[in-house]
Amino acid sequence: MKQRTHTCGELTEQQIGERVILQGWVKKRRDLGQVIFIDLRDRSGHVQIVFNEEIDSKALSQAEDVRSEFVLEVEGEVVKRDETNYNPKIPTGNIEVSIDHLEVLNPSKGLPFVIEDEAELNEDVRLKYRYLDLRRPKMQQTMILRSRTTKMIRDFLEEQSFMEIETPMLTKSTPEGARDYLVPSRVHEGDFYALPQSPQLFKQLLMVSGFERYFQIARCFRDEDLRADRQPEFTQVDIEASFLGKEELLKMMESLMSRMVKELRGVEVTAPFKRLTYDEAMNRFGSDKPDTRFGMELVDLSEQVKESGFKVFSSAIANGGVVKGICVKGIAESYSRKDLDNLGVFAEIYGAKGLAWLKVNAENEVKGPIAKFFDEEAQSNLIHTFDAEPGDVLFFAADKIQTVWDTLGALRTKFAKELKLIEPNTFDFLWVTQFPLLSYDEEEGRYAAEHHPFTRPVKEDEKMLDTNPEQVRAEAYDLVLNGYELGGGSQRIFERSLQEKMFKALGFSEEEAKEQFGFLLDAFEYGTPPHGGIALGLDRLVMILADRTNLRDTIAFPKTASASCLLTNAPSSVEEAKLDELSLKIKPKKKPENQ
Amino acid sequence: MKQRTHTCGELTEQQIGERVILQGWVKKRRDLGQVIFIDLRDRSGHVQIVFNEEIDSKALSQAEDVRSEFVLEVEGEVVKRDETNYNPKIPTGNIEVSIDHLEVLNPSKGLPFVIEDEAELNEDVRLKYRYLDLRRPKMQQTMILRSRTTKMIRDFLEEQSFMEIETPMLTKSTPEGARDYLVPSRVHEGDFYALPQSPQLFKQLLMVSGFERYFQIARCFRDEDLRADRQPEFTQVDIEASFLGKEELLKMMESLMSRMVKELRGVEVTAPFKRLTYDEAMNRFGSDKPDTRFGMELVDLSEQVKESGFKVFSSAIANGGVVKGICVKGIAESYSRKDLDNLGVFAEIYGAKGLAWLKVNAENEVKGPIAKFFDEEAQSNLIHTFDAEPGDVLFFAADKIQTVWDTLGALRTKFAKELKLIEPNTFDFLWVTQFPLLSYDEEEGRYAAEHHPFTRPVKEDEKMLDTNPEQVRAEAYDLVLNGYELGGGSQRIFERSLQEKMFKALGFSEEEAKEQFGFLLDAFEYGTPPHGGIALGLDRLVMILADRTNLRDTIAFPKTASASCLLTNAPSSVEEAKLDELSLKIKPKKKPENQ
Question: Which NCBIfam families has this protein been placed in (chains A, B) (predicted)?
């Protein structure tokens, strides 16, 4: 192998007359008998190379055996193409390279699929042959974008005096949060490490150490049942700062986001970003990560319909629930009664028992299955409350408040997509603030931290930690982009007494708190500075920046929904001897009897 | 908490007259009754702040309760110090800040040790209170240096068109290499992931994908019994490139190293770096990572002493071993007979049965326990071979060659340290090349890869892979700095047939090779480019750059020699229910009977 003089994609008319050595893959080959054209591809792009009798007959005859995805080394002269053959679609389109020397560095057998974006592929096949899937132009671009994104984040944070510090991967299992991945210890019989769900405790300890501004692009792990947008291992941009107030932190993140979107997508976004409190986000959009690129806000009807003859509404309210609705503009004609009734099935996904609807007709009357429960005045009130016009359809959900939020929140998003209400190339950032600090976990019969146990309560709510824990708001903030939660953070507790109060509110006994988090409680007594931070999901950020919808497309070697790697077949069985070293034995789970 | 206007360390005479807000830790406090001085410290350095009656009596009285490591927020005016009080040792030494407003952000109780470099601390105490240990100036500087080093590496590699791509942490266990850390799968009963020992397979697959230039600062894991310079998890600068020959790769690494040493230590190093073949390194220095900052090279004496009357020598040679020696200049006076005899114990660590020595006296005669075995001519020959002078001591090791290398290699280093032969601030880089591809593993009764199974044999040796495997040299190279192996790499096999031959030489059956590495063999058939790479141990690199000798001092939260974290107490026991979910049971190891 020689050293190449140029990459394929960089050749232009400037190199005409020069001798070049190129290396790359055969993207396409056209054999016209006397002449063979090959599009030679490398990471930088591709260029047309030409073989013919006049240039070199040996190279031509070698080129006859070449096939797609062979790896070639070629030498020749850059020449101008006939103007009629210019290809304006590619940067190298005005030139080609006349090849007088060809070496096949490695052949390729027939591929399981063609290396094109357009290929419609089963995802399992893509994952099994991930090394080929990653050759497709869009996958290449996504990985390049990911690499540029992380570089940009690092450059930005280091400009702001943040230091990257690595924290352990083999760490301690804690009872809070999601399920840990465990790693058996060979040396300490029967003991386990846990892979980190986040570097939370270590980054707080680094604040105790006085590093003041820490970040890490950190791998994190959660052993949860996977959804489309989850992976067992994921990457987090993890940031923590001392002596930096919430407002300054948010402002800094806004600069980072603005710069990123500008440099990577050429779009200007306005800072400061919008802010919504959690209550506002839920009440207006039915979501704590609302997509505010379109309206269709939730309308509260509880007061208005509580006396209506429609039992579903009145009894929902009587049972402590609510009735809310959204107005979808101008679909009365295009959505049939059947279409609308079918949305009930969609609503059920979110726990609703059904979805009532009314069309507004040309006479400004409401029509539909439940119209009969509303007299003329009630109808007119409804139209007024919804600010509805002829042609609109009104949807209603009646249930406990969380179900109503979830249902209408999802319905809004569904319609926005169906009706193409979303401007492309829009980056709609917003902050959601003042989350509840705690939520009651019915199953466990205790309060759980909404964010995590180290989040600071809002100052004026601190006194309710003992008395009305569910009313305490957190000094927490989520960064939302286009309806996705990009990440979240909070100002942290840094006083032992307050942290102990928090553990108590979470139902920890004093001993449990000490056993699990004693080192943190101790650390808080040795001069811990006020601190706070944020963590962003890098995979999701890249997904949005790359205009993709599948999180797996942003990860070089992702896992399937059952946490398998189809390429390497991980996880897999291991020899008995290895388990013996770990003092472990496999004990098959009991199957539930009725299966 | 307010927003600080300055950091402590940045204040100079330029700010005289300005009002500033500072936040930081009490480094030192001197209470003179009417006036209190505090050295206030943050990450940037420290500055003297002053409280007295005239400035503000309330602040003065608050300052009376302040103790070491309290976290303070202070406001006041920057003033010039009396010239007699200038402290030239610190950048802020000409000024101080007159404080009229003090807020204690967080107090601190008495510390288990003082925050000073000089504190002589038991390492276990340092690790238990790592968050305090990390406040010590040298630890701060080391972490800052580490952060700068990784930033510099990233900047350099991205200038060279390398992309950072993340590879999985939950991957497949393979039988080659060190012992894996295993991670039980919950979803796939009885199956395990392995934490990566390196991203080797994935980085090669990325080459198959056409990314051409990949790097990653990657966490790697080995479940081995730990020595002082090993950690169960460590960080590797992992680099792989296609279409880049060995010479170009080595040259690039030399630029990176030169830039790093220049920017971080202000030292110019000369490129190209020296190169030694493996054979040369072993024969001259007794080590494949020789410290060439000093001479004291190994001298081969086998021919010369094989007929000597000293049985230890003659029988070592008769048994296929060798006799080699080193000459240590000018220590005959200062090392007593007892000192020299005691070195036998040192030699035993390396497997030698003893260590013979001879002193060269003023008359150019050799004296010592074995002198009697050498007649006048033999003595003179010895002195000549060693190029020895009066006052030197000659050391001899007689054993199988590896033991002789190990013993004398270690002895050289020991003397270089004792005799302070090493120039400080020297960065002596060199490449060791042409390692053996395979070595015979007596225990396993098969050949093992010296580097790893993906390393390319030297072209002209390929044909010996079937016939004389132990003679095949590898296209491998190690980067050595000051006697430490910084890292190593190789050009890789990229052809299925050659890779299969290699697996065969390692004793894999066709089925085993397919079962373990089938995906790689398959990948090689779809147009895999020639590629190679290198990996550097970041922890060790930082250790050398920071002039430290303990690898743990370069890692924020390291593990002990028994792979424990003394701060968090990882690993620890987990609830039975968690093991049930993983279908695992702890099965205590059988103790060996005679214990």
Answer: aspS_bact, PRK00476.1
